[in-house]
User: Fold these one by one.
Assistant:
Number 1:
Amino acid sequence: MATDAQRLALKTYAQGVRDSRRAHAAISEPGLAPHFQRLVTDLMPTLLAAPLTVVPEFRNPQVGRPDIALTRPGEFARAFIELKSTDKPTDGRAWRDAHDARQFSRFSELAHWAICNFHEFRLYERKEAVNHAPVVPEAALDPAKSDAAADRLLEAHDPDAFLRLLERLAQAQPPAAGNAEQLAQLLAHSARLVRGIVKDRLAELTEQKSQDTPLQQVRKEFRDVLYSHPEAAGYSNPDFDELFSAAFAQTLAFGLLLVREATGQPVDHHAADHMPDEHPLMKTALQVLSMEPVAREIGAGFDVMLDTVNGFSREILAVRLDGRDPILYFYEDFLETFDPDARERFGVYYTPVEVVRYMVGALDRALRESLGTAGLADEHVHILDPATGTGTFLLGIADRLRREVASREGPGQTPPAIRGLARRMYGFELLVGPYSVAHYRLHHALSRNAEGAPEVRDLPRLGVYLTDTLARPDSAAPLGPLGFVSAGIRDERLESNRIKTEQPILAIIGNPPYRRLEVGENESLVGQWLDELWDDLKKPVRDAGQGNQLNTFPELSVAFWRWAIWKLFEAGNAPQRGVVAFITNRKFLTGWPYAGLRKMMRERFDRIEIVDLRGDVRRGERAGVGADQGVFNI
């Protein structure tokens, strides 16, 4: 039963709305919003014992902010109310206006929120409506209704259902993740919110013909410096805002998570200041994304993400008693909610852990048996994944080395072994989203130790670089509008170019992206340097009279094969021997377009192993040319 104080608050609210509508016939929701703010402010002490602040976000209109936020002292806002005009329904699925529809899609990522059109209140948990109830009779807000008649309507009205919904919203707590999979899903929802806010805000700025806001400067930096060509992610140039928005959200999410993981402390808007030194470009990227003017434009999205990253117990990410790492599938769980169609656009697919472990084991065996090294533990063996994605193969290598050293020498010897591995293990990644995830996953994996030993400290700069593997090895980093970002990517490019041209690599492993190239994509995705380099793969096909088959030759994974062979045998300081362990397209075993590649492999490698995952296994096939001491694994 509503109290007298609650009924008085509702009566005052209705009176204020009527008066405003009488004074301004065309008044819209921003003009009426202060009345609803006052109503919620007046009602809160009657609903909750703990203090709660009603924040009028409508005074600071940005695309990322619902009109009202409910906050407790020292906490981020966890409950929100979006206000709509009196003639619009509170069922967001019924909104037809494009702007409203985008808002509903965006705010549906919030765990607790509501829509109110001043006379009806509908509570949501993400996109699911919990219940709805009238705030006051709609006629009580009619400016044509006399005050006495409106008061009679209010006296006959039972507001209890509305008050219960408002109380439930005000008591909202952050979703609690009980395991790594739930955390990945919650993080994905907050990232989806940020992605939608960024994309819609950029659209608004374009409509307003703005050109130089802080958010647009960051976008330009990503476009000109961090992405050499968006086509590699399955986006055309006109779709760059979609790519940028997704990269922004993922980099922010996993950057914040990395800082929380590294420090063990809650993160805030200054998280970049606490990024470990082994992630220099991640530190720079996080600084850019959390600049105050940028964070202000993202609005509630930033706070929701901070709350998500702070709202879980770090123990849920600890390795389980059965030895399983809970973040092994973390990015796949994240992507399933954040963007389930991403793998189709990227042309890449998740590599099952069992396949990774087998390939890492085969790589270790080949290094020992065929190249006379101590395998992955050998301090002279440098390892590269040229299409590392989120770092799955590098994680597999680290896991195998940790288990091997712990078993042979004891857990106390794993920290120096892991630090040594980190200095000679590299990954190249073109897309800043997966790059950010790789840095987080590797930090998580390399920092932890075998059971019974302390965490690994003082890691070197992790060797995952944001670079285009297939670009000219002497390519320079472009300059962007934010000089400190350009400096960071320039350092990144110089070091990755050094690895390409000078660092002897003995082991190359990974799952290169498979993608048939359309006309014109040779230049945009492969580049002129490699397009000329892989021309020698076409000659054997022409010489065999099958040149007409080469119209299907251009395929992205073939470019990575040719690059790997160049790196082992033709680049500066090439060791003239080595192991390549790649997952590849099965058609390359028989198709004419791949005949030149097969011929080059027979000429360059002493031993070829092929594992056909459809059941046919062939091992130890002698290449018949023993010119170079090399092994080729599939």
Number 2:
Amino acid sequence: MANHLPNARRTTGTIAYAALAAVAVATVALLPMQDYTIHILVQTASYAIAVFGLTVVLGLCGQINLAQAAFFGFGAYAVGIGTTDLHLNFWVALSIGLVIAIVMGAFLGMTTLKLGGHYLAMVTISFQQIVTLIMVNWIPVTHGPDGVGNIKRPPGFESAHAFLALCVFAMALIGYLVWLLPQTPLGRSMRAVRDNELAAGVAGINVYRTKVAAFALSALLGGIGGGLFAGGFAYVSPDQFSFAESIVFITMTLLGGVASPVGALIGTGLLIVLPESLRFLKSVPGLYLAIYGLSIILIIRYMPDGIWGFWQQRVRRWFAPAPFTNPPSELTLAPAASDAPMALEVQSLSKHFGGLKAVDDVSFSVKRGAVHALIGPNGSGKTTTLNVLSGLYVATSGRVVLAGRDVTTLPPHARTAAGMGRTFQNIRLFRSMTALENVVIGAEHAGNDVGSDHAALVERARSALAFVGLEARAQEMVTGFSYGHQRLIEIARALAGNPTLLLLDEPAAGLNSSEKLGLRDLLKRIAATGLTILIIDHDMTLVTEVADRITVLNFGRHIADGVAADVLRQPDVIAAYLGSEPDAADFA
């Protein structure tokens, strides 16, 4: 019964939101207003829609975009040129602008394949400057610095009141859709990419496609806002879509709260309404700008998450999700059917970094249903091997065959879909999410066995958390868990994807003795289900207790392979670890 409460809350919230939106639209349509007030409200609504786009690309996906004014300009100029020079219908002209914005936004997003951080910021700034120069200098089309005037509004919305009502309706509808986005598969993918790109990739998310989608959505919303802006003011010029305006959009996003459309609306209203409300101070030179600037500085200093983020942190406990009352189903692990006797075949695998041969012609096989350990001293190439196996590094040479399928050239998300799951030596969870949300992402990759039904994904995630003993805390933020429990959540996320092969990179690292005992028992329970495990760890007690076979690396090369007890007695292995003959307890 309690499982239906979130849906009931969402339905109630949707009805309440629709009622408020209807009241807002009716109010601006019927309430007498001066033209000046109407213009301020049209600007607020159109700007807010563009800022919603930054909520998507920056707030959800974590990608910097300093060119939102360019996309705003695409929509505005398409409406301006289309309705005046080409005599097109407003909606046709706007549609053309949106297509241009989406294509250019996706193009900009494609640069994220190779760039990130400040380099991406530089690219978006350059893009913004190029667009502004085109607007100024392509006079036959854009009318140059003089801009475009006499822009037409859509049929039925010619009056200022009616057009304002249209803008408010569009803002309310788009704001609601952006509010829902984080709980969709695409929204969760964006949040995962923002929190940890490497973990997102091995959890089955196409990181590159997610970034491109975020930029395209941001550009789309920028174009919509620009088109409405042009219709509201009936005039556009290049200076309205300069780099300075992109900074204004970013500032609005940061002031209100980058991760929520509510914050975007607050920030937009603040930066548009606050200067207007301080107009009476303009008679005193400098005072107006001083108060305005001081207000912005104080908000940034004392509300680093924005105004909405500040209040959200204080009321979040009042809106905590209701706990599950029904027990989760038992976790079933059913690796993909295959006639291949080996779950993994590594054939002459090499990974070179310039002259450094981190992995050098390594070959070994892992039988289906076995627990296989990959060990070696520090710097022997174990983690590099795992990174090549999971697709984080591209192999210099050699092949990786998973359950009979060659996956050597596949990216991380495709290897996950093929049946490979992994954890990391340094825990990589999505820290802005709950334990349940983290594990749901592991369950909903392409090729999973539970489909795309959200209820089924949640049930699989609960089952995986129950398997590691943490289902009772499913709704808690992962940042509230101990280090050892965070490791268990990462394992649960990998298990939720129903892998054919589970790669564990130093799962015992940082655990105390009791936590290591619990991990040992967990690995034995996983092995009992028939799931194949390849584990890296320096704890020889754990390795010898859970592993059927061991492969040893040293200086990137394979030096031994076989049953654990036999391998640890081989002279090459002893020399690699100790440099001399061991005592009886050396590997205890």
Number 3:
Amino acid sequence: MPARLPSNPQLADLFQTLADYLALDGQSLYRILAYEKAVALFRVHPVSVAEMALRGDLRDLPGVGQAIETKVIEFITTGRLAALDEMSERYPEGLLTVMHLPGVGPKTARKLWGLAHISDVQALKEACADGRIRGLPGMGEKTEQNFLRAVETWETRVAEAPRARRLLTEVEPQAAHFVEILRALPATVAADYAGSLRRRRSMVRDIDLVVGSNDPSSIMNAFAALPELHSIEERGDTKLAAITHTGLGLDLRVVEPASYGDLLQHFTGSASHNVALRAYAQRRGLKINEYNVQHVETGRLTTCATEAEVYAMLDLAYIEPELRENQGEIDAAATGALPHLIELSDLKGDLHVHSDWSDGRATLEEMALGARRAGLEYMCFCDHSHSLSVQGGITAERLLTQIETIRELDARIDGIRLLTGSEVDILVDGTLDWPDDILAKLDYVTASIHSGFGQPRDQITCRLTGAMRNPYVRSIGHPTGRLLTRRDSYDVDIDELAAVAVETGTFLEINASPDRLDLSAPMSRRAVDLGATLVVCSDAHHPDDFANLKLAIWEGRRGWLEAKRVANTGPWASFSGGKTPA
């Protein structure tokens, strides 16, 4: 048995590699999904998975069966996995990276290995440079160019790997759990998380925790003993640095309650906001730091128990954490021009929801009841149009049947209005996947791009604006196509999109999928400044996904978004009559 048990991220990486090999080998999708579910669980589980396996408790976790438990114990006791060794003898490990390049996938990677012995990214790059790819069956010069772009994207991400961040939705629940523990300690007066997480950045690197207490040693002792911590890297009287079982870095700071607001404001940041705030303070004869505010002329020190007191010392209105990016918020606070930021409670409906009629994982009724539990007044089903076979797109005949089914369900379920819609694909030539006579039968239509991401800026923009000029298209879904950690935004002119949105009365979406959050905060702010109206939608594929709406709200708040600029903060009747061009 190894001297040190494997961490949860190590086990997650191990099973992800095994799942990747199985996908490369073309094995059962259900088997692959079982391992990937274990990967997702291991990455966020707060206590040691290895210790649970040795205690015989691992199968208490949802979705973990005997096969996975056996493999975890095998790795703990031997340091190896026989199944992984077998696969690595069949395929080179570098082929897994090739498989994950944008536009490649398991079948193409297997083909590249079988026909051209391409074993890693460098070999693929050389084959493209030599013109060998275009000679393979089913591949041509355009394929080579696509591969080269994919390799370039991969190389950029490798260069950025030391600065890698995680999705907000992965880190925030862990941070909230630690805050809950800290607030329950008898010696705690106040506690919260800080840093980029509190500013609701879509990607964050670690967890910063701030505690106000008159007994820091009690806080330190209790926190250091938590089973969620894999290791303590550094510990002092009021500072602690640790690594969680999920592989996240964690910093804890304890300060006297009288200075809690000073410390929380300082460690919430951003760095550029704090620099600008210090300069603003200096012009008023003050110096601010993480412990107090100093009056330069007299030397008098004032401590602030809350952040609001810090800003009030500078004659500033309270600046919400999401706005602290040095994007004009200090001047706005000084002049009374801060926005009244949107809240989750402002949302009345969700206009982009999937079901098991396409790629969703729940029935129409289950999704409807989930939306009602989330407190929504109306909800629109927007399953994929027929060309998106990978996403389970439905045929026109099925869509017409679904319309009737939704109408019947709407009549039967009280407390929520159910609407008929579609997420219609904008095809690579700019046409829509449904003809107008189909679109006319729907209550609401979202149009989205799901292919042709590498097209030039003008072509991508033209596809989107062309869809916006269709009288039945009410909104553009995930307008820039980004997938955080996996795919950059396609090149699109947000100013042109906003202008056509105003011209045609088409909404632009902030999509709540945790790896999208698209439009991003800067783009949503720009679009609204140009007069566009937005919608905030879940893109839910399961009832649990309605909880993601808060992520889109957070992203919108970072873009200075107010409820009055979001269509679905109003009742369905306020925009059910069709588009209202400028």
Number 4:
Amino acid sequence: MAKSYRVVQRDQPFLLPPDMRDWLPADHVVWFLLETVEALDTSAFHARRRLGGAGTAGYDPDMLLALLVYAYCQGVRSSRQIERRCLTDVAFRVLCAQVAPDHATIARFRAEHEAAFAALFTQVLQVTAAAGLVRLGTVAIDGTKIPANASIDANRGQQWLDEQVRQIVAEARQVDEAEEGTSAGGPGDGDGERVPARLRDRSHRAERIRRAAQEVAEQTQRRDQAQREREDAALARCRRSEAGGPMVGRIPDGPHRLAEAQAHLAREIAAHQAKLDRNAAILAAGRRPMGRPPVPMEQSTRVLRARRVVQAAIDAQARPGAAGESGNAAFKHRKPKHLPSVVANTTDPQSRIMPTRKGFLQGYNAQLAVSADHVILAVSVSQSTNDQVSFVPMMQAAQDAAACLHAQTGSGDHLIGTVLADAGYASDANLAAAGPDRLIALARGRDQSKAAPGEPAETPPLPGATIRQLMAHRLRTEEGRTLYKRRGATVEPAIGNLKTILDRFSRRGLNAALGELQLAATACNLLKIYRVAAAA
């Protein structure tokens, strides 16, 4: 039992000068980050600084960089929150050496060095390789949707944006006329020296509305161009089908769907009639035909299936508004009725509406390439909701990173073995693209895991198999199943660690989001080095 309480004496001055090196343990991550930043080439962060002349001394860019990286390691991205931590958190106070920068300085430093964060990511990756990490026997590529600093309710269509732009132009014209009247001695807003109140809006709303209107116009132009390309491809396909050429795949929606379906039916009827005529000729010659005789025309499964395809095309053509529908017509019918088909966000015009398992969000599609030991090799930010278009660029980025590391270390661990990706990246173009060996699933994860053991491939693939058939065969082999199982265990933990740091973008715009993602990936890799070194 305690005899008394310890004395609480807050007004006791320090008897000896304090030493900040005693404030944190010797193995704290802050000391590791400071040593790492000191060893890196940070000249890009110093290039924008001007020394000499009048004015207050500036903040050291190395200090600001270490402070920002540590803040991201802790999941703190708000510049105001970082400023507060520099006053209340011992680790932050050590990093800034008791010279706390204000939030505007932190935000401006982050905004001014978007390009430098890419070089910083590459340098940290080289440090990671020098530490004995980055094993590239397998590299997994995957994407994750990250919300933007914008609300999904801020999306507007072309009509609303055009009306706002007209109002802005009219308001600007009125301001010009008022200023001309003031300079001529007429009544005006103030004494001619002040800026009108409606022009003192620092949120730049008018500029964001103009950018949103431009985004909608560009999206509309791209959509129209893609629609024309789809219609041209559908017409060419229909003509090949009418000429008797075999077609592979589903008949695309649109004005040529019925014609191609009818051509397909005619081709199936002609092929089955040829079988019937050949069988009848053999019987008429008094010979016995080999094999099972062909079924009557009305019982042929291929003909019946072709008739159903024709009927489905007739039904689709009879639906209201069916004329001119493209292949994504079903998706357009599922869109909310209160939104136009093409929208842009007035807060972050470059962000997009992204579908996820939990619904829709306003954000970006972040792509990661991860090594077998969970080191992030490359990152990118896309506006596309589809992952297919990102596979080749991400694979190339991973190859470039591997080549850079191999040139530095000469280690065989820094040569890419196999690239792993899920079914979201499955396309003939991605399967056939030049590059390293790859395994891309052709079905969803659960279906893929069930199909492989149920239908194991124990013989070589058939001669003349397509590239998709070859991939399906390999995924059913023991080697393919074992290798593909590493995909989830490789990339999913890295995405989880990244999202503990960056669960929402703080800055707006595609380039700003990419710079912030690179900074977060740099923090992830630095934490990886620190934890491995601490466990050794």
